[in-house]
Amino acid sequence: MRYRISGKQIDVGDALQTHVKSELGETVEKFSQRPTDATVIFARDAYEYSCETTVHLSTGLTAAAKGHATDIYAAFENCREKMEKQLRRYKRRLKDHHRDRTEPVEFAGAPMYVLAANGETSDMEPDSLQPMIIAEMETRIPSLSVGEAVMQMELAGTPLLVFRNEKNGGVSVVHRRDDGNVGWIDTSAG
């Protein structure tokens, strides 16, 4: 497994890097036999350290976790425990997908735009109703089943996931609702 361990305005020493590689490697290997790479980012905010970890699996799925503590090692351990809990929760489903899926998840490219927030709080009408694009980038849309999409959304800790439905080829969205349930928007059902 490839590791990218870095710090935001802090120095990440060799001892911490060795600790992260051994502990995270052991945790991920226990639940997923084919991890490809991991990104670990440490940051400090006043008195608290944070650790953000993202692990990419060979199936194309991504698991992410965050941890906070007053000690940098404790922040990593908190993050590792959350990652372990997610992977343990989905271990059976991850293993089943390895058997059913002989090839990794396919991804399609799509343009993604970042629109400027309207910072005006006045009651005046804006000059134009067209939003201002402040960034353009490429994003990857996976081809998944609905169950895999919900699992990916949970593993990544995101409130929303856009995916191409393997069953019908249409673009679909799964999202976390305010009531705690998961919503599914299927554009091909129209």
Automatic annotation (TrEMBL):
Entry keywords, A to Z: Coiled coil, Cytoplasm, Translation regulation
Keyword Zinc-finger in annotation: no
Subcellular location: Cytoplasm
Coiled-coil ranges from the UniProt annotation: 73-100
Protein family per UniProt: Belongs to the HPF/YfiA ribosome-associated protein family. Long HPF subfamily.
PANTHER family in the record: 30S RIBOSOMAL PROTEIN (PTHR33231)
UniProt protein name: Ribosome hibernation promoting factor
Species whose genome carries this gene: Albidovulum salinarum
